[in-house]
Amino acid sequence: MKTEKLNVFSGVKTFVTPMVISMAAMLLVGGIMTSCTEGNSKSKDENTAVDIPVLELQPQSVEVPQTYIADIQAVQFVEVRSKVSGFVDRIFVDEGEFVKKGQTLFQLSSAEYNEMVNSARAGLARAKAEQSAAKVEMERLQILVNKKIISPSELELAKSKKAVADSQIAEAESMLKSAQTGLSYTTVKAPFDGLVDRIPHKIGSLVTENDLLTSITDISSVFAYYKVNENEYLNFMRSKIESGAETFSEQLTLILSDGEKYGLKGKLETTEGDIESGTGSIGFRVRFPNPDNLIKHGASGKIQMMSKLDQVYLIPQKSTFEIQDFTYVYVVDKENTVKVRSFKPIQRYDIYYIADGFEPGDKIVFEGIQQVKDGTKVVPQSVAAADVYHDLLSVR
C-alpha cells in the first residue's frame, strides 16, 4: 500500500511506504534516547567532586636573605703623585708588588734641587757672616759710647744692622729648608704597606707637579658599602637596641661577581649620618677580612643579610598561576568549592612566594590546579605543612 503526499517545497507528489515510516520512527526514538543518555552523563560528570590536595595556611615568621649591590673599596687607597717636576730617573718597584711603608718607589731627577740646596746653604753662610760682623761692630760701638767718645745714636744704628742680619739668617734658613724639602720630593716613598698599582710613567718620562705616578692599596681588609631603605634601617636599629649596642654583632655574607659566596663573614661597622632625601635610603659599611688579597679595590659584589618577616604566609609556587602580571591561587571555601583569588607576593624565596592578606586557616589547592577551575567542587585531601615546607627548612 502506498501513501500519496505532496511535497510542499517542490510541489511534487511523493509516495512513502509504511516500511519507510516505521524505520524513520525508530531512528527518531533512538536519537532522543541517545541525547538523553549523553545529557545525563554530562550532568553527572559536572557534579562529581575531585580529590585534590589542600594546604591550610597559617601565619609564620621567617628570615629571608636580602641582597644589595655593594661598592667594594680597600681600607686604604692613596694616589701617589709627584710634588715636583722632573724626569723619572729610576723605578724601584713593579706593578702589583707589595711594598712596606717608607720604601722607595721612584727617583726623580734631582740635580736642579741639589743646586738650590747648595745656593741656599751659601746664602745662609753669608747671612751668618754678616750677622757676626754686625755683632762685632755693635760691641765696639758700645765700648765707645760707654767712654763717651761717640754719641749713643751711632750705637742704635749698629743695633739695627744687627737685627737686619738676624732676620737675614732666618730667611736663609727658611730658603734652605724649602730647598731641602724640594730635594726630598724627588725621592718618592710608600705612604703605608700595600700593593703597587699600574705605573703610567716609565724611566725617562717627564712628570710635572701633581702627575699620577701610581696608587697604593691596602687590601688586608676591604670595605663594602651598600644602601638600604628607611624601613630596613629602622628594623636593623631596633634589633641593635634590643640586643644591646655593645653585644650586637651582625655577620654578613658577600657574594662575589661570579655568584660565589666569599668564605669569610663581614662585620657591619657603621652607617651614614643622613637618609638621602631623593631615594629614602641610607648607607651601611661592612668590613671583610681579606688575608689572601682575593678581593681587589673597586671590585663588584652583593651583600646578603637576613631580614625577618612576621605574620606572613608561604605560598608554594606550584600552587599558583599567573595571568598578565597577576598571581592567582585557588582557595577552597567551607562548602569545598574552589574560588580563584589574586594576591601580590611580597617577594619570592626559593620555591615559595611570601605574601600577606590571607587569614589563618585559609585553604588553598596545593597541587593539581590544572584539574580545577572557579566553582569546581572538590574533596579536600589535607597536606601536612611540615612536608610542604621541608625544602624551606633545609635551605635555612
As an assembly, this protein is single chain
State the share of residues found in helices, binned by percent.
25-40%
Mean pLDDT: 83
**Count of spatially separate domains:** 4
Q: How is the biggest beta sheet arranged?
A: 6 strands, mixed
Determine the N-to-C terminus distance: 92 Å
CATH architecture label of the largest domain? Beta Barrel
Transmembrane segments: 12-33
Domain Multidrug resistance protein MdtA-like alpha-helical hairpin: 118-186
Pfam families: Beta-barrel_RND, BSH_RND, HH_MFP_RND
Domain Multidrug resistance protein MdtA-like barrel-sandwich hybrid: 78-217
Description:
The chain is α+β, with helices and mostly antiparallel strands. It folds into 4 domains: 1-32, no CATH class; 50-61 and 311-395, conserved putative lor/sdh protein from methanococcus maripaludis s2 fold, CATH 2.40.420.20; 66-74 and 219-306, Beta Barrel (Elongation Factor Tu (Ef-tu), domain 3); 77-214, OB fold (Dihydrolipoamide Acetyltransferase, E2P) (Beta Barrel). It is built from 6 helices and 22 strands. The protein has helices at 18-47, 111-146, 152-184, 230-243, 385-388, 390-395, and strands spanning 3-6, 13-16, 50-56, 60-81, 86-91, 98-99, 104-108, 187-189, 194-196, 206-207, 212-229, 251-256, 266-271, 281-289, 300-316, 320-323, 326-332, 338-343, 347-349, 352-355, 363-365, 378-382. Strands 3, 16, 17, 18, 21 and 22 form a 6-stranded mixed β-sheet that branches. A 6-stranded antiparallel barrel has the order 4-11-14-13-12-15. It has a 4-stranded antiparallel β-sheet with strand order 8-7-5-10, with no helix packed on it. Helix 2 (111-146) runs antiparallel to helix 3. The radius of gyration is 47 Å and the shape is elongated.
